[in-house]
Write a structure and sequence with these properties.
Helix content: over 70%
Order of helices and strands: HHHHHHHHHHHH
Number of helices: 12
Number of strands: 0
CATH topology of one domain: MetI-like fold
Largest sheet: none
Shape: globular
Distance between the termini: 6 Å
CATH superfamily of one domain: MetI-like
Structural class: mainly alpha
Length: 321
């Protein structure tokens, strides 16, 4: 296990380095620059060009691309992600991400837990009773969730539960002057529901398919022939073997969760990394976008590593040598 873990950590480090090269190159090879908008506010084209040139020199953007990347990489490895250019001018990017990362992880974590808690039982019911009324209802719900645009569902929830009924707050993480646990939960309900919807739909179909395949195996028929209760057969023998592909799916859903968090946090003004990422893109804040992209890449790579390690916990037959 130790050799496998060290090998995977080395592979992940090389992968993250490769991702950083691609992301940095794409951002800094985009036509134009972060200060092109100054051309519209200057009194003359010459003055605008001089201002942009001076700012590029101050930030080192006039240097060769490989030199800029090396300077960025050596600083990023020690936790210095640079300064924000536009979103929070002059503030360290690392501090901005640190202030938002907890909210995003809370939103993504709760969404993953709730989606799995709902998808697991309905997927099992759909597999145990295939082509029944319950299976058809669950299938209809799954297709509804898969076809529902996240931004549209979020806006509809805002209109219904905040504007019309007034049950839930329209946005933010807390109510000023009322930052207790109940208030925090009320602010989380709609973002978590929206972010969980697509996850539940996809996971329930995947669990159903995996369970149907496992329930056809010989050892399931043998357990039933020995008189083992059906519920125990499904939960002990069936689910434990069917859950392995689901673990892989959960590891691959990390980028989907983060991508959904960008839309969800923007709709509900949730102070997380997704909303910060949107602001960074809209305002050409390259250091901020680069840092958030690398953090999200780290989460994806780390999620897949945890999924691989979880295989050995769920199935004792799996050994990493």
């Amino acid at each position: 296990m130790r050799a496998f873990l060290l090998r995977r950590l080395l592979q992940n480090a090389i992968l993250l380095l490769f991702i950083s090269v691609i992301v940095y190159g794409i951002l800094y090879l985009v036509p134009g620059g972060p200060f092109d908008q100054l051309n519209f506010g200057a009194t003359s084209a010459t003055a605008a060009a001089a201002q942009v040139k001076r700012l590029n020199e101050l930030l080192g953007l006039d240097r060769p691309l490989y030199e800029r990347y090396w300077n960025w990489l050596t600083k990023a490895l020690v936790g210095d992600w640079g300064m924000s250019w536009t979103v929070a001018f002059g503030q360290p990017v690392g501090r901005l991400i640190q202030s938002r990362l907890g909210n995003t992880l809370l939103l993504m974590g709760l969404s993953a837990v709730f989606s799995l808690a709902i998808a697991l039982p309905i997927g099992i019911i759909s597999a145990v009773r295939p082509y029944s009324i319950w299976d058809y209802l669950i299938t209809a719900f799954s297709f509804f969730g898969l076809s529902m645009p996240t931004f549209w569902f979020g806006v509809m929830m805002l209109i219904i539960f905040s504007v019309v009924l007034g049950w839930l707050p329209a946005g933010g993480a807390i109510t000023p002057g009322k930052a207790d646990l109940v208030d925090r939960i009320r602010h989380l309900i709609m973002p978590v529901a929206v972010l969980s919807l697509v996850q539940v739909a996809g996971q329930s179909r995947f669990i159903r398919s995996s369970m149907l395949e496992v329930l056809k195996q010989d050892y399931i028929r043998t357990a039933r022939a020995k008189g083992v209760p059906w519920a125990r057969v499904v939960m002990t023998h069936g689910l434990r073997n069917a859950i392995l592909p689901v673990i892989t799916l959960l590891g691959l859903e990390v980028p989907q969760l983060f991508g959904g968090a960008i839309i969800t946090e923007t709709i509900f003004t949730w102070p997380g990394m997704g909303r910060l990422f949107f602001e960074g893109i809209s305002k050409n804040d390259w250091p901020l976008v680069q840092a958030i992209t690398m953090v999200s890449a780290f989460l994806v790579v780390g999620g897949n590593l945890l999924a691989d390690l979880a295989y050995a916990v769920v199935d004792p037959r799996i050994r990493y040598e």
